[in-house]
Amino acid sequence: MIDSVEKLEEMLSRPGSDLVKDIANIQGDILILGVGGKMGPSLAKLAMRAIKEAGLNKRVIGVSRFSEQGLKEELEGEGIETIAIDLLNDQELQSLPDVENVIYMAGKKFGTTGQEHFTWGMNTYLPGRVGEKFKKSNIVVFSSGNIYPFVSHGSSGATEDTAPDPRGEYAQSCLGRERIFEYFSHKYKIPMLIYRLNYAVDLRYGNLLEIAQMVQEEREIDLSIGHMNVIWQGDANEIAIRALLHCQSPPKILNVTGPETISIRWAAEELGKLLGKTPRFKNQEEPDALLNNASHSHQLFGYPKVSLREMFALTADWVKAGGATLNKPTHFQERTGKF
Length: 339
Hints:
Layout lengths: L4 H8 L4 H7 L6 E4 L6 H14 L6 E5 L6 H7 L3 E4 L5 H5 L6 E4 L11 H18 L4 E7 L6 E2 L15 H21 L3 E6 L2 E2 L5 H10 L3 E3 L4 E2 L2 E2 H10 L9 E5 L5 E2 H12 L4 E3 L5 E2 L5 H7 L6 H13 L19
Helix pairs in contact: 3-9, 6-7, 8-10, 8-12, 10-12
């Protein structure tokens, strides 16, 4: 049982043996752009712990506005260097140190509706400036499974060969981000990997938390989106770091998620058993959903270490204990792409 944020952060940043082995083969320092998001802090800690366990002398540098109180100091306490800038300020962006490896996590999703111009600025203009700045680096680019069309839940999910067909301006801007990075990869022969994630969870946010909260509070769960994918955030972050060894030009595309196509009805019922509640539902499952097939990722990096059943148990315990949450809903039930 994980009963505190400190224990959760320790678990999320605990490197596996494969990461410790791979970190030794990653030449040079690692710069994380957008380290202040949901996944960035634990990814930075994970990279630094792996470096220390491997007995190496590499720098991990986290870049963000650092609007969250105390985060900068927390990361520095783990040995991570921090740089506080506005990435959209080109003078500040160009002042960043040149490094061999960049993990690009910056982006805008929630609040896109009504702020479309800012979303496009973050998701498509900024990548061009980053591509110019870091033309001599390996770059892992965080993207989203939202760029794919909805597919049948019996299809095993969209693969890296599925043609993009994004719904809504957020998803369109995510494809724009990919295309801009792809352009600079071709122009400067920058080794890149486009990391299409769908969906990462920890106990403070994510699909499973939201479903468990609705079960616990006896709120109706909308089944219009009837199926989903999830992956534990710690596993997703390990893949992102190890992916630095798989960058290439033109960019390599990689879907990242868990191995299951999960019925939301079934997930709610299983969480209900753990919470002692009977889920309530509304609407019926549509025949399609936003689903990814990550079998290529599993071939490269192995299956996620934290199983779906473990995520259920950890999430139910967290909800019962009233654990802290980030209050950042995923909107995973959105069918029209309006975030």
